[in-house]
Amino acid sequence: MIPAPPKSLTSHLRELALPAALVWAVTVAAGTAGADEPPPLATIIEDRPADLGPAGRVDPSRPARLSAEDRERLFEQLTRDAEELERQGAQLRRLSLLLRPSVVHIDARKPATRASRGAKAGDEDEAGSGVIARVADSLVVITNRHVVNGAELDRIVIRLDDGRELTPRRMWTDPATDLAVLAVAGDDLVPARLAERDTVQIGDTVLAIGSPFGLSHSVTLGIVSAKGRRDLELGDEGVKFQDFIQTDAAINPGNSGGPLVNLRGEVVGVNTAIASNSGGSEGIGFAIPVPMVSFVARQLVEHGTVSRAYLGVTLDRSFSQRTAERLGMLRAVGARVSGVTKNSPADAAGIRPDDVILEFDGQPVDDDDHLVSLVSVTPTDRTVTLGVFRGRQRVELRLPVASREQFEPQ
């Protein structure tokens, strides 16, 4: 079980789907500083004789005004600064132009627990976003499960940027990651580029594109604020496998399922949730990283379900500094094994309680949740390498993973 995060955060987490009737304006602006600063005003006006008005009277505000020459010089500086800013802004305009045809608005009508105002009795409208992608040689729309869950195919409308409307031919969902894949068909569909690997770093500039509050194809700008958020409490069913990117790009209800994009125009995540006191953006948004998105989407398209790897270890959820020191470690890093499932891959490889898994298939392991996330996006036909701390030294183990369904039937 994933532990609940602090109440100060979880009580304000919101999924980003939106009743379609709720529409009001959200505005976004972004910019950077110019190059040259104008000279201080005191430098401009020093040693200037006072201007005499009628009857020799002095206008006390006159020396504080710019002369025609000073104004012309400042206009020239502004032009130079503006050209630099415009060059940077052109990159964002190009990104918006490239990505707009690949981002869709989704309306889903689904059975409601209570009647929605203006809707057919027993139904409710939910709106979100999605991104067109090519997965396993098929054109699909990737979105969040909570946007479309419970809706019949003929009650899901996918609206393209040119106004066309499509109905999905098939739908697959994965509750464990809150991802959904919709099979679509149409002329001139433009798939986005999914990043081939995880290159996202904290501080990277990113754009979020979607339909906040029903305002389709809105673009917002921000940075990657953090990575590896794995203890969020989302929805009634929860999201079992988490490895969220945190961003301060403005994300609001209706952005669910829309892409998070890097400056190269590659999709690096799927926007899913926010932490908010108000229900709107407060600079803390969460996106599913593209390695998890690509793995789940491919599994769903090829097999109709997601088959995940399995090691067969029980992990210490409260691995402490005291325990780390007892094992001969300077600090509590990695995932401490507290138990091993009989006849599992871990059992066959000789993993023991008190082993600390420091590395999984070449990737350093931060903690137990991180290891769970790494294993969850590993194909079941892989042989992996584990870096393990045991007996005050590091050892390396190789083992073929099993399918989780063999040990944890759904």
Describe the structure.
With 410 residues, the chain is of the alpha+beta class. It has 9 helices and 23 strands. The chain has 2 domains: 7-19 and 77-305, Thrombin, subunit H (Beta Barrel), CATH 2.40.10; 309-407, PDZ domain (Pdz3 Domain, Roll). It is 20% helix and 31% strand. The strands form 4 sheets. A 7-stranded antiparallel beta sheet has the order 6-5-2-3-4-8-7. Strands 10-11-12-15-14-13 form a 6-stranded antiparallel barrel.
In short:
With 410 residues, this protein is α+β, with helices and mostly antiparallel strands.
List the helices and strands and how they pair.
Layout: H1 7-10, E1 13-15, H2 41-45, H3 68-99, E2 103-111, E3 123-135, E4 138-144, H4 145-148, E5 156-159, E6 165-166, E7 170-174, E8 179-183, E9 193-194, E10 205-210, E11 218-229, E12 244-247, E13 259-262, E14 266-275, E15 285-289, H5 290-303, E16 309-310, E17 313-315, H6 321-326, E18 335-340, H7 345-349, E19 356-360, E20 363-364, H8 368-376, E21 383-390, E22 393-400, E23 402-403, H9 404-407
What is the total domain count?
2
Gyration radius, to the nearest Å?
A: 27 Å
Q: Which fold name corresponds to the CATH topology of the largest domain?
A: Thrombin, subunit H
Largest beta sheet: what is the strand line-up?
A: 6-5-2-3-4-8-7
Instruction: Supply the CATH architecture of the largest domain.
Output: Beta Barrel
Instruction: Tell me the name of the CATH class of the largest domain.
Output: Mainly Beta
Morphology call: globular
The overall average pLDDT, rounded, is: 85
Quickly count the helices.
Answer: 9
Q: Tally the beta strands.
A: 23
Low-confidence stretches: 1-12, 19-35, 41-48
